[in-house]
Design brief:
- The chain has helices at residues 56-65, 68-79, 124-128, 130-140, 173-189, 217-234, 252-261, 278-286, 306-322, 368-377; strands spanning 4-9, 17-18, 34-46, 49-53, 89-94, 145-150, 164-167, 194-197, 212-214, 240-247, 267-271, 291-296, 327-332, 334-335, 355-357, 364-366, 385-391, 396-402, 408-414, 420-426, 429-436, 441-446.
- The strands form 4 sheets. A 9-stranded mixed sheet has the order 2-1-22-19-18-17-3-20-21, with helices on one face. An 8-stranded parallel sheet has the order 12-11-10-8-6-5-4-13.
- The protein has 2 domains: 4-45 and 386-446, Sandwich (Immunoglobulin-like); 48-379, Alpha-Beta Barrel (TIM Barrel).
- With 448 residues, the chain is α/β, with parallel strands linked by helices.
- Helix 6 (217-234) crosses helix 7 (252-261) and helix 9 (306-322) runs parallel beside helix 10.
- It starts with a strand and ends with a strand.
- It has 10 helices and 22 strands.
Length: 448
């Protein structure tokens, strides 16, 4: 006899609520029902998991502003697979991002000093908040994988002499590769394995009000092929290298890097701030065998009403997974009541964290992104393999996986304007019938 766990969100007042069997087992099926068919004879990518980022701002808020009992609670609810939602991927900035209290790298020097031998490299900044929280997350979830991305090289390596804008000077390609090696070694010394890196966050975006660095595809190919990968090989490192780390609207960039440095590249990292998730499949099919990772997407005040914002994460999350995504990582793990802290001079932030930490009151709030991530992470566990799923109605969006323990994980979202009765089937076997209200989400875990 199959066992079912069902979690449902119907709106702001009902978010990821466990459902008793009586609440859905009696829903009539048949005429008028939408059939969702699962086919585990067709399989696709294997999942690493879901998560967010311990930016400097997030780590500071969670480690220094929250009281100890609050921090223990939120870490458990974020990372514990049993008592929480079991987040299993972190994508942490290497140095300052836009969400940091100061602009810093791991090797800051006053002009005109340089340090190509990396003798003054140090991750001391991260030892205060980022590393302790990452270690605690790993303790709560031993399956955790750590990704890392820089927003900029140290200023002395760049054309403008600053971490704000500019490009990496070609004479410092080797030094920058050593910068990555030192980072991986320093984190290993703290007991943290870096699973994957990208050479540059949002390599085609060069804002001048927070750390950034323009890195054109030809430059990234050269850096990876002739410097970064050889440095990893030299030091016996198996850390994966993902290229691009930017929006869906420029698949030509990763295609260029994969053409020029494909043997040294393990996969592609994507963001959702432009284009469509189908770009992931386009590149995957053009260069088969390369991993597909979604490494940043933030919700925020530009999608103000709750329903639209929650629906966006559910709808887009399903599309990410249906387009070969092996990870789905949102942005800041925590922000404050002003959507910060941000680097000095940033201006008004509109991003939303997974949780909110009010710096004035100390109040901890779980945002809609926490519950949207829960719909995926709680049932789709690391190592799960996606199986085919299809719906008779395009408004009933679906994605399905088989976990390593044999259980089936299914996420459904009703993107339509009316309630639907849904019948879910596997190989001619009726699995479950349920009612799905407009703009509601349901996650289902079915025992073998």
């Amino acid at each position: 006899m199959r066992q079912y766990k069902v979690y449902k969100s119907t709106g702001e007042k009902e978010l990821f609520v466990p459902q008793s069997p009586e609440s859905w087992a009696s829903v009539p099926s048949g005429a008028g029902s939408v059939v969702v068919t699962l086919d585990d004879n067709r399989s696709y990518q294997q999942m690493d998991g879901f998560g967010a980022s311990f930016t400097d701002s997030s780590a500071y808020l969670m480690n220094q502003v929250l009281r100890e009992e609050q921090r223990e609670e939120v870490m458990r609810r974020l990372f514990d697979p049993q008592d929480g939602i079991g987040l299993s991927v972190l994508r942490n900035p290497m140095g300052a991002s836009d969400y940091a209290r100061t602009v810093y790298s791991y090797n800051d020097l006053p002009a005109p000093e340089t340090d190509p031998e990396m003798t003054r490299f140090s991750v001391a900044h991260d030892e205060a908040d980022v590393i302790p929280l990452t270690l605690q997350a790993l303790m709560l979830n031993p399956q955790l994988k750590l990704f890392a991305s820089p927003w900029s090289a140290p200023g002395w390596m760049k054309t403008g002499g600053s971490m704000l804008g500019g490009q990496l000077k070609s004479e410092y390609y080797a030094a920058y590769a050593d910068y990555f090696v030192k980072y991986i070694q320093a984190y290993a010394a703290h007991g943290l394995k870096v699973h994957a890196v990208t050479p540059q966050n949002e390599a085609l975006y060069e804002p001048l009000h927070y750390p950034s660095m323009l890195m054109l595809p030809e430059a990234q190919s050269d850096f990876i092929k002739n410097h970064l990968k050889p440095a990893f090989v030299k030091h016996g490192m198996d850390t994966k290298i993902l290229c691009y780390d930017h929006n869906w609207d420029r698949p030509d960039y990763p295609l260029t890097v994969l053409e020029q440095a494909g043997d040294e590249v393990d996969g592609v990292a994507w963001h959702w701030y432009g284009g469509e998730a189908s770009a992931q499949t386009k590149v995957y099919e053009a260069v088969p065998g390369k991993e597909v990772h979604f490494t940043e997407g933030s919700g925020g005040e530009w999608i103000p009403p709750f329903e639209q914002a929650f629906s966006n994460v559910m709808r887009t999350g399903i599309e990410i997974l249906r387009n070969y995504g092996q990870s789905m990582v949102l942005w800041n793990m925590a922000l404050d009541e002003h959507n910060g802290p941000t680097v000095p001079g940033f201006g008004q932030s509109t991003c939303r964290g997974i949780v909110q930490v009010n710096q004035q009151t100390g109040e901890l709030t779980y945002t809609l992104d926490y519950y949207a991530l829960a719909h995926f992470s709680k049932v789709i566990r690391p190592g799960a393999v996606r199986i085919a799923s299809s719906s008779e109605d395009e408004d009933i969006r679906s994605v399905a996986f088989r976990n390593t323990d044999g259980s089936l994980a299914v996420v459904l979202f009703n993107d339509g304007s009316v309630t639907a009765n849904v019948d879910m089937n596997l190989r001619e076997e009726g699995l479950l019938s349920l009612k799905l209200e407009s703009k509601s989400a349901v996650s289902i875990l079915i025992s073998p």
